[in-house]
Amino acid sequence: MTTDLDERTAADFYDFESALSHEEHKILLRTREFMRQEVAPLVNEAWSRGRFPTELITRFRESGLVGLPYEGYGAHRPAVSHLLSGMMAMEMSRVDASVATFFGVHNGLAMYAVQAGGDQEQRERWLPGMAAMETIGAFALTEPLDGSDVAAGMRTTARRDGDTWTLDGAKRWIGNATFADQVVVWARDVADDQVKGFVVGKGAAGFTAERIAHKTSLRIVENADITLTGVRVPERDRLQNIGSFRDVAEILRATRSGVAWQALGVMVGAYELALAYAKEREQFGRPLAGFQLVQDLLVKCLGNITACWGMLLRLARLQDDGVFKDEHSSLAKAHVTARMREVVAWAREIFGGNGIVLDYDIARFFADAEAIYSFEGTREMNTLIVGKAVTGQSAFV
């Protein structure tokens, strides 16, 4: 399917959207329109306040965009391809990375944890409400003292007493946690030293979530410090198909590619802002777009975008074919986020002094890129995963 030029983004130089089916492309266009109409007018004020605009939850609920990757379970639609899921993440991040992160935490990490880690009864109990966004999910893995080494260093514990578990510990940087209805909490079982997953409901005794203030990146995402003090969770709320951190890693492997698509979206949004500004802004009696050095910056941005888009399209095909591996998503996350850093810097440069003013949007993209560069595995950690795959030697500590 060849995409109409009027429908494509300015950054889609090789018409990657044409890789979608007709029906999938209609969903992508619906995502684009939703972000333009419902999200774009709110984000700068929300970013300034450092608060998530909760009115968006109702609008997302009515959009028909939630729960698309999950067949059945109240979604009332067939599962879509990984390519469409990725392009939707890109499309959201093209407008705002914070809102895309909110959506990714709920629709990706939290829902996929239930889908992959829960048994049939648990999927039927939790996924319909999540697919309808009647209940908001969060995913609590990272801890105050353990980020990259959380697999070995997890300090949050779970103790079983009959049909009840008691959770004690702390989590940090947990997106959506301040308003989530249910949080997937990962804890180490003191009996067998294996990591297990638990769904903790809003208002559970001993559970507190405090918003992390003073952030300079993804300010709309309400990341929280979570404290768990004697939180009681019934056995029926333990994810039955999670037996070790290896199972958790499978969830992260699947969702890490979504972060790479987010990084692409940030690149696309920043480039399109810079391109439009260069055409409109005049200096020395002509538009900035008419200067060689500005064109050089724009073409370097477009080159990074096009190369990364091609990489992610192939990654999505590997996922759809069921043959992709951990190192595939790790290479994409490491490479695309590094190129994103270059693009947002070049795009901001085109704005000159105006590039640090939120009114021009580009400052938000420049700042938000830093969080995406770091979460879901730093560049260094993902490099070690790929390095082990290509050399056969583990360089992890």
TrEMBL record:
The Acyl-CoA oxidase/dehydrogenase middle domain, residue ranges: 138-230
Signal peptide: none
Keywords for the protein's UniProt record, in alphabetical order: FAD, Flavoprotein, Oxidoreductase
Pfam families for the chain: Acyl-CoA_dh_1, Acyl-CoA_dh_M, Acyl-CoA_dh_N
Record-linked InterPro entries: ACX4-like, Acyl-CoA_DH_CS, Acyl-CoA_Oxase/DH_mid-dom, Acyl-CoA_Oxase/DH_mid-dom_sf, AcylCo_DH-like_C, AcylCo_DH/oxidase_C, AcylCoA_DH/ox_N, AcylCoA_DH/ox_N_sf
Acyl-CoA dehydrogenase/oxidase N-terminal domain location: 22-134
Required cofactor(s): FAD
Domain Acyl-CoA dehydrogenase/oxidase C-terminal intervals: 248-390
Annotated TM spans: none
Family from the record: Belongs to the acyl-CoA dehydrogenase family.
Alphabetized PANTHER family for the sequence: ACYL-COA DEHYDROGENASE, ACYL-COENZYME A OXIDASE
Protein name: Acyl-CoA dehydrogenase family protein
Species of the source: Streptomyces ziwulingensis
